[in-house]
Request: fold
Amino acid sequence: MRNCKELTKLASRACDEQIGFGEKIELKLHLMMCKRCRQFVQNNQKLHKIMQSYRQVDENK
Amino acid sequence: MNDKKNDDFVLLLLKNHAVDIADYHHSFNAIYLQKLYGQMLQFAKLQLNQSDLAEDAVQESLIAAMQYQHNFKGNSAFKSWVFAILKNKIVDLIRKQQKYVMMSELYENESDEFEISDLCFAENGRWQAEYTPKAFDDSWCNPELQTENQHFWQVLEYCLTHLKSEQARVFLMKEYIGLDTQEICQVVQVSREHYYVLMHRARLQLQRCLTEHWFDAV
Reply:
């Protein structure tokens, strides 16, 4: 099983592309038990939204 | 500085990218690029101490950056992007010359000693309490607080420019330009594995920086 450092790396990769079925299950299981990693994942989703808005703000300048 | 020569370069650059030079409403008009060129050259000269080398680095970076020019309708992210490329080039040049004189504070974040993924986690791979991310609330996108939001974009730009240049490059390519993994690895010439590492670190670093300067700022 991955520790938090390795798990966040997998979670980061999951933002960029499809991860394997086994990896998905491991990610979900870990996130169910680990609040800090869950926070990291939720923030990444926000960060993605932030970057999209940032792009739009730029375009409307 | 030979202003005439620099201006000629900018005009040629615009012409090659089919940007209408007379269109001053276009974000990439000559005035904007000439100003940017000046800032880049100043930065490069400080780092390299050799004008001709600095000029080459700036021109090569601008040419590389202009390939994705159409993806940057506004100016501010283009600037982060082009400076990320420039910093990369400068680091390469300095390594080649075996000169490790880092003169600007902008360089501090390029050092290998300070690696975010080692700071965030203990040796056993668990989160360090003080580096644990705080929840990002919606304070950055309050529709009623325009000025407040403006301030947030400044914080974001600050955090983006304080990423290591290689991280900033791949992160902007992914999250701003919207390229896929394969394309990014080709352009930046890194392996997939290294790309994952760079993105992981960029995300950790940005979360840390945004937490510190916005979401958890007193």
